[in-house]
Amino acid sequence: MKPDTTPAQNRPKTYRVKSFGCQMNVYDGERMAELLAEKGITEAPEGEDADLVVLNTCHIREKAAEKIYSDIGRLTKGKIQKKVPMIAVAGCVAQAEGEEIMKRAPAVSMVVGPQAYHRLPDMLDKAVQGERVTDTDMPAIAKFNALPQRKRRTPSAFLTVQEGCDKFCTYCVVPYTRGAEISRPYNDLLDEARKLIEAGAREITLLGQNVNAWSGENETGRTVGLAGLIHSLARLDGLERIRYTTSHPNDMDDALIAAHGEVAKLMPYLHLPVQAGNDRVLKAMNRSHTAQSYLRLLERFREARPDIALSGDFIVGFPGETEAEFEDTLSLVDEVRYAQAYSFKYSPRPGTPAATMDNQIAKEVMEDRLQRLQDRLNRDQLAFNQASVGKTCDVLVERKGKHEGQWLGKSPWLQSVWFEDEAQLGDLVAVELAEAGPNSLRGVVREVATV
After folding, report:
1. I want to staple 158 with a disulfide (CB 3.0 to 4.6 A). Which of 27, 213, 214, 354 is the partner?
2. What is the residue-level pLDDT of the chain in tens, covering all 451 positions?
């Protein structure tokens, strides 16, 4: 075996974690930052180069791998006077392309998958000695037991409760990069939630690839689903708001629907991806619902919580999708009137069944359909915001605005709201929504409920 001649590197003093994609990647990025902080490495100040850069990748978007190589190139090129940082590639692209990344990008010292990042400090010790390290093992739950105590980040915190996916939608790589569905133990989640609250969190968003597939045994030994966990979290003093994402229609149950009418701390917002409005396309995607079963689910949520804001995901241009089938998606959008939604052109992911299907849709056709879909979604988002004008609601203050005395936060319906008044991070401010735009609302303060 040829000896490793890679030169040793100085131990990094500063780091930067750059996360792409979903909220679960944001959570993972925060946890990796906490691991590095425990090793005495501090976050690089804004605008300054870091000694260690962690690229926490997402494999969902088109050409995700190539974009990572572009980022690596930007970090390594043109560094005549400044040294090249140590680079770690983490996340789903790392899981899918670990050895290939090592071959194509000699500047990368570490490649670590989303189920192995708890071993990042040990990998760093080896990388400092000049060893290039790859770890893409997929242990079921071990990483959570190895992670340090949570640190305060913002008044709103993420809490991963479930990982992986067993649904095998034909367009999706998640079952291959995140593994099978697993649920974290109930007691572990309550403990982490308490620590987040003690550190200042007033809102917790429960995360999972299929978050409503979570189940566990509560303190009495009874098996409960996500609704049972939400009821338990709602009893924690200091926690004011609960959210969850992302859900799958197949895992919705009566208890979770009812919880939206029973738990005051559960915010009136539901993100429930549909992907398409035509049953043939849904079947080709291996989605378990039909357009009508999906619409019936939404009606049940509206019955439980009439003011609920609805959000969804859409893919246009799935292989074989006809113009008439795309029109079915537009019809579904017109019926639902989403408060928010996310829409994308189909892009083939290597190793997924859809990547080899016949009748791949031309790029220009997908672009036209996406624009038409987004026109409808933007119309409905603006209409929802405009319909909110005149309401008074609590806004959780999350950060300062661009101007002196300006603050930004979220309404119960996950709208971005800004206002000008005296406040502090973490305040719950009673705000009258006075003016609506497509992406945010202006509020007028009526009352401040401080931490």
Report:
1. 27
2. 344 444 456 889 999 999 887 788 888 888 899 899 988 999 998 888 899 999 998 876 666 677 888 888 888 876 544 678 999 999 888 888 888 899 999 999 999 988 888 889 899 999 999 899 998 887 666 667 666 666 656 899 999 999 889 999 999 988 888 888 999 999 999 999 999 999 999 999 999 999 999 999 999 999 999 999 999 999 999 999 999 999 999 999 999 999 999 999 999 999 999 999 999 999 999 999 999 999 999 999 999 999 999 999 999 999 999 999 999 999 999 999 999 999 999 999 888 999 999 999 999 999 999 999 999 999 999 999 999 999 999 999 999 998 888 999 999 999 999 999 999 999 999 999 999 999 999 999 986 554 4
What whole-number distance in Å separates Cα of residue 20 and Cα of residue 324?
34
Do residues 348 and 232 share a domain?
Answer: yes
Its domain, for residue 351, covers 144-387
Place of tokens 């040294």: 83
Question: Residue 311 forms beta bridges with which residues?
Answer: 271, 340
Confirm whether 328 is domain-assigned. yes
- Domain end (from 363, 387, 411): 387
Residues 298 and 165 in one domain: yes
Across 191-339, the runs of DSSP E, i.e. the strands, are 203-207, 215-217, 223-225, 241-245, 269-271, 309-316
